[in-house]
Fold this protein.
Amino acid sequence: MTEDSLEIGNYRKILLATDGSEQSLDVVRYVSSSFFPQSTQVVLFNVGTEFPEVFWDMDENPLYRSKKPKVMRWLANHQVAMGEFMEIALKILENAGFSDDAVEVKTQAKRIGILADIVQESYQNYSALVMGQSGTSKIKDAIFGSLAHRLVGKIKHIPMVIVGGLPASNRMMVALDESIEAMRVVTSIADLTGAGSQKTILCHALRLPGMFRFASGQMPFTERELDWLEYQKNKFRPYMDEAVQRLQQGGVPSENISRRFVATRGNPILKIIKTARKKDCGTLAVGRREAVSFGEAYFRGRFSEKIIDMLENMAVWIVN
């Protein structure tokens, strides 16, 4: 390593799962502008295709012998395409200020399965996993569910970042509540992006209790509702103060931090998403509670999974 290169302990290693798709390039662009180059190492990881040994014995069978050249051309074209993808990805990271020592290309043949191989790799001292919401096969994603959706339930030891399209990456909204998980989200953001220039909005959704919900829709809040909301704001402010302190300790300048309360009679998830879009946030960060009752998991689904389904030119951070 050179004198200016990164040293172990001074950086965070990011696993960027790629498949050569245009969405994967958008993920590279997102990482290049969201993570601080001087404190981040990026590993471009691809699980490739390798034919089993029996394929090379096909020459003995005339039926397969005639097919072999076509299969070999497909494999060669695939490898060329991945090579071109990696070349573009490396250039994007270089232009963003990442040094050669801060970027690693890692490819391997499929061992267990693409999903299992990514999970296995994620245990190799990474600080986060970043990948696209969709891959090279949109039809396959629609039928079987995208790899990102399936990985949500597998990656629980490090933060997972799912990128949809190409987000505007200079503004992040953090969905904050009283849970330990929500505060872990704040700590994770400070740890991974604190030295960057990203704007961070701490947002808490106040959902009016059942006695107020008979007045739904866009009706103005009543005086009684406003009193209840003001009380809840004051009650939650210590959590906001702690979150701000954690961000500042992680290197986020105070001028890059703002607070916001939103009130709703309906679904707080939808309210937060709408607020994030209104504030032109390219990233939405949420915590995932493990203590979810069966009824809530079955009928309503997890908070983060609902958000993933609504992503469009946005990224979502999921932190346990």
